[in-house]
Amino acid sequence: MGEITLEQYRRDYPEIAEDFTIPQRWESYTEDEHAVWNLLGARQSALLPGAACAEFLEGLGRLSLTTGGIPDFEKLSATLSSHTGWQVVAVPGLVPDDVFFQHLANRRFPAGRFIRRRDQLDYLQEPDVFHDVFGHVPMLMHPVFADYLQAYGEGGLRAQGLGMLEHLARLYWYTVEFGLLRTDEGLRIFGSGIVSSASESAFCLEDPSPNRVAFDLVRVMRTRYRIDDFQQTYFVIESFEQLLRETAERDFAPIYERLRELDDLMPEALTAEDEIIHRGTQRYARKRA
Ligand code: HBI
Ligand code: FE
Description:
Layout: H1 6-12, H2 31-47, H3 54-63, H4 73-84, E1 87-91, H5 97-105, E2 108-112, H6 129-136, H7 143-162, H8 165-177, E3 180-183, E4 186-189, H9 192-195, H10 198-206, E5 211-214, H11 217-222, E6 233-237, H12 240-246, H13 252-261, E7 276-278, H14 283-288
Parallel strand pairs: 1-2, 3-6, 5-6
Antiparallel strand pairs: 3-4, 5-7
Helix pairs in contact: 5-7, 7-8, 7-12
Bound molecules: 7,8-dihydrobiopterin (HBI) and fe (iii) ion.
7,8-dihydrobiopterin binds at residues 91, 94-95, 97, 100, 110, 127, 169, 172.
């Protein structure tokens, strides 16, 4: 899946730096681009109480990301860094894995600068500023999650050296992007891919179709995922402390050795060892197939 190079981006973004960052040029956003942000922000904010976890909602509230237009990364980074030491930097789109990990390992979150068009409100392939900022930045206000994402960046660089990147990418996918949290009030969302999507916010919690399975590191790293539709399985953590403990504070070398012996699991698969919170009907996925 050939990665984009600096030279390719340089044609459209002559000001791109070696680390793939570009100036945000906040003044250049049009009124209509700010209006698209506000539309998405208002829509998601209305859906998320009782669906997103308290940690996400608290971060969102403190950053006032709802209807003030596309945020200025400099101001956003000032607030964010005073809480957890993270910053937001602008990039033109997807960046190579090692570049992505280097940023995370240094507590910089690379965010797309562009915003989706009005005819793409519900789905687009490349991460835009709404997904990256509204979806990811609120959780970076949480000290434990902030440490987890930095550790993921450091682990990514190591995994790349060991040829295990595909496995580690699944951890990112099923936690940072599509993770659920178990709370006394029921399941709640913390995954950025979900909180930035109107349809998946409801689907992941309410639809009988997908599996909901307790998080287990090796299980997650064996499981393939879909990038083109709703997930068929969501993994549920008990707490952010658990996530940090079972990932950042663990030696992955023996885990990678086990993974070399184990087959991949399909996105809808369940195993005898799973702690199943909800056994999905997979009706939605079958209908789409
Ligand atoms: N680049 N801008 C950007 N955003 C991402 O989420 C991203 C990326 N490059 C690589 C990547 N994600 C993933 O493939 C890694 O988590 C493995
Ligand atoms: Fe993302």
